[in-house]
Amino acid sequence: MSLARRIVAGVDLWLNPPQPPLEASGTSGMKAALNGVPSLSVLDGWCIEVHVEGVTGWSIGGSAESRTDSVADAAALYDKLESSVLPTFYREPERFIDIMRHAIALNGSFFHTQRMLSEYISKAYDSEPPQSAS
């Protein structure tokens, strides 16, 4: 918890570029978004649920399934930084702040304790237990 607090504090952009299919659980990115940090991420895992290009953050490349070339992934990352993220951050600070607000609002409406408990109950605990071989 203390390490996560240090990682998220003072962050202006959450970079999430895993190679498919190695997307992490996303809890750090969710925590960053709930603290007003937009993401620059591949569209994989949790990001798919809340990503709105240029509204909650930015995406890198195409869908996770179509990403197989790390050179193209790097080019897409640098292109997005140069053409969208950095100009917004440095030249349009009010727009960047709006993106921060949208990251909080959208992520907060999707990722919360009530949803987590509801999904655990319905997906993990409502199913029939495996039958033992007798």
Summarize the entry for a quick read.
The chain is mainly alpha-helical and 134 residues long.
Tally of individual domains = 1
**End-to-end C-alpha gap:** 45 Å
- Could you give a short account of the major beta sheet? 3 strands, parallel
Q: Could you estimate the helical fraction of the residues in percent?
A: 40-55%
In angstroms, what is the radius of gyration?
Answer: 17 Å
The count of strands amounts to 3
Mean pLDDT: 83
**CATH level-two architecture:** 3-Layer(aba) Sandwich
Q: Strand arrangement, largest sheet? A: 1-2-3
Gross morphology is globular
| Series of H and E elements | HEHEHEHHH
- CATH class assignment: Alpha Beta
Poorly predicted runs of 5 or more residues: none
Structural class by SSE content: mainly alpha
**Total count of helical runs of at least 4 residues:** 6
**What is the CATH topology?**
Rossmann fold
Structure description:
- This protein is mainly alpha-helical and 134 residues long.
- The protein has one domain (2-114): Glycogen Phosphorylase B (Rossmann fold, 3-Layer(aba) Sandwich), CATH 3.40.50.
- 54% of the residues lie in helices and 11% in strands.
- It is built from 6 helices and 3 strands, in the order H-E-H-E-H-E-H-H-H.
- The chain has helices at residues 2-8, 27-34, 47-50, 70-91, 93-110, 113-125, and strands spanning 14-16, 39-43, 57-63.
- The chain has a 3-stranded parallel sheet.
- Helix 3 (47-50) links the parallel strand 2 (39-43) and strand 3 (57-63).
- The model has no long low-confidence stretch (mean pLDDT 83).
